[in-house]
Amino acid sequence: MQDHREVESLFREFEYLQGRDEDAGRVVHTACAELKMHDTLNTELFRPAVLEAAGEAGLERLLAEVEDGQQTIRDLIEQVEQTDADHDKRDAHFSALAEHVERQFKEAETQVFPQAKKLKRLDLMSVAAEMKARKSAIMAEI
Fold first, then answer.
1. Which of 20, 62, 109, 113 sits in a 20 to 30 Å window from 39, CA-based?
2. Helix (H) and strand (E) counts for the chain?
3. 3-state secondary structure of 83
């Protein structure tokens, strides 16, 4: 959830800086990088751990819906990154990305996380530690 708050903060900063191409571009770049990292952590560690612990069809369906939303986010990031920094379309694509991401974060925090916390076979502390270590490795690569 800390990653969620950081990305949301970047979205607010972008709203403030919109129209200042260089500063807004920095925020766009940072937000896209953070979202890619977040996606990697979810795809490699969080979702597999939850699915392994769950064994429940309802949670599998919910995680499949989340994955569909993540694919939309990946597509939107690609659109943002392929649009010129000084182009109004970049701002429009980034705003659409922000709206979609915020919906995904809300769904994760209100539906996925509460169900995951109930899973007796899921060691959230271990998963969080793995995610933190992987995030550090990704940051070192960048």
1. 20
2. 7, 0
3. coil
| Long-range pairs, 79-82, Cβ under 8 A, ≥24 | 80/28, 80/32, 81/32
What are the angstrom distances between the C-alpha of 129 and each of 75, 121, 124, 125, 134?
A: 29, 16, 8, 6, 9
User: Residue 57 has what pLDDT?
Assistant: 55
Please check whether residue 80 is in contact with residue 32, taking contact to mean a CB–CB distance below 8 angstroms: yes
Tokens of 1: 């959830």
CA 135-138-142 angle, 5° bins: 135
Closest to 41 (Cα-Cα) out of 117, 125, 116, 134: 134
pLDDT confidence of residue 56: 60
**What rounded mean pLDDT belongs to the chain?**
90
Check: CB of residue 90 under 8 Å from CB of residue 28.
Answer: yes
* Mean pLDDT (whole number) for 62-71: 86
Q: By the 8 A CB rule, do 24 and 11 touch? A: no
Q: What is the reported pLDDT for 67?
A: 87
Residue written as token pair 């200042």: 20
